[in-house]
Amino acid sequence: MTLLLTHLFWLAGALLLVVGAMIVADKAHPRRFAAGGFWILYAVIFLVGDKLPAELVGVLVIAMAVIAGFGGVLGAKPNMPSEDTRRASAKRLGNLLFIPALAIPVVTVVVTLAAGKLAIGGTPLVDPKNATLVGFGIGCVIALALACFVTRDSVGQSAKEARRLIDALSWAAVLPQMLGMLGLVFSDAGVGKAVAHVATTYVNLDYRFVAVAVYCIGMALFTMVMGNGFAAFPVMTGGIGVPILINVFHGDPAVMVAIGMFSGYCGTLMTPMAANYNIVPAALLELPDKNAVIKAQAPTGALLLVLNIVLLNVLMFR
Amino acid sequence: MQTNLWPLLGVAVIIVGFLLRFNPMLIVAVAAIVTPLCAHFPLDKILAAIGTGFLKTRNIPLIILLPLAVIGLLERHGLRERAQIWIAGIKAATAGRLLIVYLLVRELTAAVGLTGLGGHPQMVRPLLAPMAEGATETRYGKISDAVRYKLRAFSAATDNVGLFFGEDIFVAFGAIVLMVTFLKEAGIVVAPMHVAVWGMPTALGAFVIHSVRLYLLDRRLAKELGGGAQASAPGDREAAPGIGAQAQPSANLAGE
């Protein structure tokens, strides 16, 4: 049997289903049916999404957005032992506590590197196309076993802890996927073509430096709107990079794409649309300002974008 | 050929929605309906586009959801406190220095393809951020919530910067494959290795710029928390009276 992404979807779906059921059963929760229902809908999409008609999945997604949009995904009061208890436990267990946490990256890396060799009778054990993600999933399962062993606690308690963290994350856990979906819808609807049309029609690209700056800043801005450099790259490179920087000014294409993509990443540092890098950590770290991570990154992103424009102008036309 | 510019309305929905601070889930849902509507999609096709788009992107949240059970359980048993005790034992540690070292390791490991070695749920929340807070508390005593939040935000930012500008100089990374494939379709052949090499100046620039900012963060912390006189000599800890009171960091932490 080969471990596929599908198995990870089942695992995530099972976790969400348990969490959703816990919330619905929690009489102390302020809005248990809305919040529990939100996670159960999400679980359904993970567990049986492939078998449902796409239109129905679309309806479920919008239902989730509506529940979240009207404040339905509240968390319950977290139930944690006092800081003294945790400190005593930390002293008692010592550095053993690090082992399960570090097992996740270690197993991920080992599986990624060994994926090509892990096979029984010609059938690969791990989906070679998604070796890193599958390795990550295996790492999480092994780490959970180790964590239960080290702390002498139960899998049931770990589900309660997962619920505590999912409560803290709330809808921010779903936002990255929503934005990924939006990126696909945008490209279906031809947003990229429209942006390239506007950029090439209304900006004077006859000066080389202007064209270089427009390419880099355009990559950053379009990445900020889409939340993803990969979505901006074909639009800007097809609209300005290849026709102007390469065909008109004869620049080096390898330099252009390398620095162009990095200019997009500067945009990623500065946008709430890159939710998994910027909004999710703010929720995970329980920061009151959802844009705190972006604010910490923005100066690095802006300075680096300026550096990129200079580098591209110098290195591309050696 | 006439380009239909109306789908740009979807982009406007996003920008206006975020500026007016509507719930991001709602903004995205509205944009996902308005945009294809402007491209003259019928309703069932819009719903299907949303549904298939959401199904195709199910791999994105896995990295957030799967480690939660482990990390939550370890936190209950004191993982974050352990990280703070550990960093308190390293006398030279400051938040800025810790994050610079992490930035270097994160960028170098990502550059050789080991992107799984960091991440927000499994590394930043349970280990890196508590260490940055712990190092600062060991040095300056109790810190305010504002400082705590700033340290956490910088921890997350450092993980991002290291990942983004490291992974793109790894030849087998998806971004380089995407770039080379795109150029090939435009009739231009480039070697993936060249793309990786030309990414290095920016990768180095990212490390230098962000490290300088982390160094300045240390300076600012010393000035704000160290109390006047010792701010001018951040390297000379023993001379600082306010910090001398914290000479036994582990005893101090255990006593809290």
Provide a descriptive summary of the structure in words.
The complex is a heterodimer of chains A (318) and B (256). Chain A is 73% helix and 1% strand. The mean pLDDT of chain A is 90. Chain A has helices at residues 5-25, 32-48, 54-69, 83-93, 98-114, 131-151, 155-169, 175-189, 191-202, 208-226, 229-246, 253-268, 275-284, 292-315; strands at residues 119-120, 123-124. Chain B folds into 2 domains: 8-58, no CATH class; 63-255, no CATH class. Helices cover 71% and strands 0% of the residues of chain B. Chain B contains 13 helices and no strands. Chain B has helices at 8-19, 24-38, 43-56, 62-65, 68-76, 79-88, 95-111, 120-140, 145-167, 174-185, 192-225, 241-244, 249-255. The chains are: A mainly alpha (318), B mainly alpha (256). Chains A and B meet through helix 1, helix 3, helix 4, helix 5 and helix 6 of A and helix 1, helix 2, helix 3, helix 4 and helix 5 of B.
Quickly list its features.
heterodimer; A: 318 residues; mainly alpha; 2 domains; two-stranded antiparallel sheet; 14 helices; B: 256 residues; 71% helix; disordered C terminus
